[in-house]
Amino acid sequence: MLSRPRLTIDLDAIAANYRLLQETVSPAECAAVIKADAYGMGAEAIGRHLLFKGCRAFFFAHPGEAAPLAAEIAEAGGRVFILNGLGGYTVRDFTDSGLIPVLNSLDEAWLWMNEAGDKPAALHLDTGMNRLGLPAIDDAAVQALQQQGLNLVHIMSHFACSEEPANPRNREQIERFTARYPAFGIAERSISNSAGCFLGSDAHFEMVRPGLALYGPQPSLGNRADLKIPYLFEAPVLQVRRVQAGETVGYGATHVFKTDGWSATIGAGYADGVPRCLSNRTHVFVGGKTAPIIGRVSMDSTVIDLTLHENPQSLAHARAQIYGPDIPVETQAEAAGLSPYELLTRIGGRTERAFKGRLD
Ligand SMILES: *Cc1c(COP(=O)(O)O)cnc(C)c1O
Q1: What is the pTM of this model?
Q2: Which of 6, 46, 92, 258 has its CA 20 to 30 A from that of 60?
Q3: Band of residue 359 on the pLDDT scale cut at 50, 70, 90
């Protein structure tokens, strides 16, 4: 067996999550956000699978991320939106492959109209996130550009606090959006990310843009959705070691064995996406039960405690689950003080990816 870590993605579980989201927001259209390589899970395979399952709108952050799939999506009658706007790319980077930029400012709207003519674009209205999007003060100027030929086909905004269903900012943002969009006369609107899908029908408009929930993590602090866990991130046990009371483990000797026992070294470290802040903070799952991470996570390996396992030596070359169906990524994220988004997108380049349920 290879000593590399492995990420196995169950494409049917992602499709089931997509179906759940689509049913939750129906009759609105459910798009799929597959930016950042589908949150570390593989945008090409996931995008193709969701296209086959009926998804017709995809969001990426950059034109380059969309390149491997743009033609297939267009052929199937789907659309590709680019969230980061023109972002210093040339207009041809979009028009050559039919990408729809999400214009985030008056400058971008002006540039698009001048260089892309009547090619379709989306417009992002900032309603309180203060990250990307048009401030209200520029609404009239963009409406004037529409008179001159700017072709806006989608209008959107983005929630700052949608994972807190009771937060009054959600309602406030919907109200600001509702006050501003009519003057643009665009029939297709969206504001909801994954958590927004669970805020009720007045957050759905004609389209929703979930990312996170497709990949399994619970998006909302308010309710538990019946989402499947599609990821299995695991590393091989490289060595099982007998240890004696008083010995220490790893850099900085941050763990001391209180009794004689067993440890194992697994072949994944912080270069592979096991954050160093998990050192001495959580466990992995191996041989049917949990095993604490002991000592500091190293670059290429991590040490775990097998003292409470029945037959530790039998676990040489077993695989340890870092996160997956037996340990959700949320559990590890909480132990690390990071968000599930951050943990998923950290999986490093050495990790081998395998897909279950692939159609091709
Ligand atoms: C990333 C992103 C999304 C998806 O958010 P999730 O919380 O992952 O569902 C939707 N809209 C915009 C503008 C985004 O940047």
Answers
A1: 0.96
A2: 6
A3: confident
Ligand 1 closest atom vs CA 162: 7
- 1 pLDDT band, cuts 50/70/90, is low
For the Cβ of 11 lying below 6 angstroms from any atom of ligand 1, the answer is no
203 CB within 6 A, ligand 1: no
CB 85 within 8 A of CB 102: yes
Contacts 24+ apart (CB under 8 A), 102-107: 102/132, 102/154, 102/156, 103/134, 103/152, 104/132, 104/133, 104/134, 105/133, 105/134, 105/138, 106/134, 106/138, 106/141, 106/142
pLDDT, one tens digit per residue, over 49-106 is 999 999 999 999 999 999 999 999 999 999 999 999 998 899 999 999 999 999 999 9
Mutate to test the pocket of ligand 1, among 14, 59, 156, 191 (most ligand atoms within 8 A of CB): 59
**Pocket lining: 193 vs ligand 1, CB cutoff 6 Å:** yes
Dihedral over Cα of 308, 314, 317, 321: its sign: negative
Binding-site annotation: residue ranges for substrate: 131, 299
**∠ CA(68), CA(196), CA(82), 5° rounding?**
25
Helix axes 63-75 and 43-52, enclosed angle (nearest 10): 20
Question: Which pair of structure tokens corresponds to residue 328?
Answer: 């959700």
Mean pLDDT along residues 199-220: 97
Per-residue pLDDT of 296-335, as tens digits, reads 999 999 999 999 999 999 999 999 999 999 999 999 999 9
Phi/psi class of residue 188: alpha, beta or left (left: φ > 0; alpha: ψ in -120 to 50)?
A: beta
Q: Of 47-56, 189-198, 219-228, which gets the smallest average pLDDT? A: 219-228
Average pLDDT in the chain: 97
Provide the strand spans (E) within 119-230: 120-124, 151-156, 189-190, 207-208
**Active-site residue numbers?**
35, 251
Kindly state if the Cβ of 170 falls inside 6 Å of ligand 1: no
